[in-house]
Amino acid sequence: MTNIAKGLEGVLFTESKLTFINGSEGILTHLGIPIQEWAQSSTFEELSLALLNGQLPSAAELAAFDAHLKANRAIPEKLVEEIASFPRTVAPMQALRTAVSYLGLFDPQAEETSEAARRDISIRLIAQFSTIIAAIARSREGQPVVAPRSDLTHAGNFLYMLTGKEPSAEQTRLFDIALVLHADHGMNASTFTAIATSSTLSDMYSCVVSAIGALKGPLHGGANEAVMDMLDEVGVPEKAEAYINAKLDAKEKIMGVGHRVYKYFDPRSRVLRDYAEVVANKEGKSNYYQILETIEKVVVDRIGSKGIYPNVDFYSGTVYSDLGIGKEYFTPIFALARISGWCASVMEYARDNRLLRPDAVYTGATDAHYVKLQDRI
């Protein structure tokens, strides 16, 4: 009997030096460096360059990369006008998918697939994703689009374009950490989709638009928004234990809990949990954190032995909410971070490219014959 790996679980199709995950022990590393160290000591800009280069950059390399990002933040005015013309009811991920595809029309290198061209395009996409997403958010809310600034960090500039106000150093650092934690995560669905598109020798914009489409699905990118819906449904910390016990008794899915890879705590969730607690208490928004804390305890006590623990989405929504970001923009912000991983993985796979073409086990009829239309019942 043929064994089928549903969801391609456990199937190895390539090699990578970018990200390592040990799900049973809750380990995540980029270039061999633990994610906790990246979050504590690095920045999104540095991690993005490290992923593209496959190694830690020198100070001079990082400075040049940062300058390149800042110089490429602006998007074509025609694209700004197009985004402003989108219906305000359009879902942000729909808008992002369309905007990125449209952006490619203005790039003279768009059709080039050499490594040098892919790298140039990757840097522009990393820089411009933040401008596009902020423009989508501002336009949907009937506010004027805010132009990027070149004197702010990548994280700080996004928050500025989103709100129209310069963020504090603490807000900037918190958002930067969130971007670092989401920048890459191995062969997840969107990264695999980008690679599959790239394997046909398609262009980088097509790869990224494909990845956006995969991330848009609620089984991949929408869990942190669903966690916020759950918190609003619970309402107050005093109701959290009974609420979650009822969900577990009914064998219902708990949003932000469980992961295809991790059978222990997602290490990214541990980092975000600590920051969520600090921010929630400082901002006087401790209700959300207290609810999450209670839910985590009940979940770990009741189903932790089955390898089901909170994942990165469990706390990320609370962090974004405390930064004043609406939950409808949580998944686009996921894309804002993951663009680095997508581009780096596409470039890495392209160096030893092979067209992805899996097979399926045929289970249909084997002895059928064509019946003329007029003779069909």
TrEMBL record:
PANTHER family in the cross-refs: CITRATE SYNTHASE (PTHR11739), CITRATE SYNTHASE, PEROXISOMAL (PTHR11739:SF4)
Entry's family note: Belongs to the citrate synthase family.
GO terms for biological process, alphabetical: carbohydrate metabolic process; tricarboxylic acid cycle
Protein name: Citrate synthase
Key words of the record: Acyltransferase, Transferase, Tricarboxylic acid cycle
Reactions catalysed according to its record: oxaloacetate + acetyl-CoA + H2O = citrate + CoA + H(+)
Organism: Deinococcus koreensis
Keyword Transferase belongs to the record: yes
Active site, renumbered: H259, D313
GO molecular function: citrate synthase activity
InterPro entries: 2-MeCitrate/Citrate_synth_II, Citrate_synth-like_lrg_a-sub, Citrate_synth-like_sm_a-sub, Citrate_synthase, Citrate_synthase_AS, Citrate_synthase_bac-typ, Citrate_synthase_sf
Keyword Transferase: yes
Stored Pfam families: Citrate_synt (PF00285)
